[in-house]
Amino acid sequence: MPEKIKISLLIFSILQFLLDLYIFKNWKKFILQKKWSNSYYQFYLAVSIILLPLSIYTANYHFNNPVRDTFHSYLLMFVNIWWISKIPSVLSLLLKDIISLFIKKKKPKETSFEKRRDFLVSTGWTLAAVPYLITTNGALNTKNDIKVKTISVPILNLHPDLHNTWIAQISDLHLGSFFDDKLMSRTIDKINSLGADMVMITGDFVNYDHREYEKFYKLMKKFSKMKNVFACLGNHDHYVSSKYIGDLKDMINSSGIDLLINESRVFEKNKGRLNIAGIDNIGHGQNYGDFNKTFLNVDNAFNTILLAHDPRNWDQSIISKRYADLTLSGHTHGGQLVFEFMNERFSPVQFIYKQWAGLYTNTEQHIYVNTGLGTVGPPIRIGVAPEITMIRLVPSNVLT
Ligand SMILES: [Fe+2]
User: Fold this and answer.
1) Per-domain residue ranges for the chain?
2) Taking the model in full, what pTM does it have?
3) Domain 146-395 class in CATH
4) 339-391 per-position pLDDT tens digit
5) DSSP 7-60
6) Residues with beta carbon < 5 A to ion ligand 1?
7) Residue 365 C-alpha to ligand 1 middle, in angstroms?
């Protein structure tokens, strides 16, 4: 295991221990105040004592085993549910303690004050169970519940023969994150049944090892039965060691996927022609992309679709600089955490990525950010299911 990961693992474990100690201290105080049975806090203590070394073991296992068995995948899921669900409780307890620091501690005379405070504390502990339910649902249900999203994208000067051309986009497979092949198998069957003209895969086939793809190779070969399957690489694909990245690229290509690495192709439908360009990854300290090479053979007489894993490329290098009518990206996963409120979607990831999920438009140029299929880190998706996007190209005078 690299030294950097060892140090992060150590810091993470110390942090976990401190957070758990903090919650335990407060939980014990609450139980003693309520005069409930000591076994309530003793049980919490026992689970924590078992789970702390188990978490360290699981993290260590996952850093050393890119291809995981089902048992370890579920173990990772379980410890993640346990730790992630604590975050809201820790934040509320911290808030409570900070407020207490500013309020002068004197014994209130009215019992109504005490009653109110007890009620709030009891409600707080009851509500602490909610994140466990939400996280468990994200791990067991949302993560496996593929959603097909359908959108229409208006393209300027779209050739009549290309009107209603359908593109199926998937992204961020992170094959090593799948517990088994069920989700990927369902995804491929679904794409097959949708009958799109093209399939676009916008990078991050694996987490960091070519063996993840090897495990799914037989399944990925199903793409060879489809026509016009194009892909680009993502930052995670470049985490594969330089010795094996060639093997990964070979496996992708021989699965029937046309991997575009700073190059372009022409898609034809009757007399309509469309440039399909794919740029290698730029972002996260990587600079494998070369726009000049990618657009070298692009004929500006036709519309262009660009595959670029990281959506930040759109603002930085595509809008008004290089002409691509539609850019397809992934990478953000929607932060694997999305809240919906009054028809608006919110995710912590939007503080990092301006374009983080869905369709964005700047005059005649568009970007669609697919929120991905797999997971990185916790094998959990809260409020953001694995996504297949069906994109319909329409002439720009047709409203979306
Ligand atoms: Fe990704």
Assistant:
1) 3-140, 146-395
2) 0.89
3) alpha beta
4) 988 888 999 999 999 999 999 999 899 999 999 999 998 899 999 999 999 99
5) HHHHHHHHHHHHHHHHHHHHHHHHHHHHT--THHHHHHHHHHHHHHHHHHHHHH
6) 172, 204
7) 24
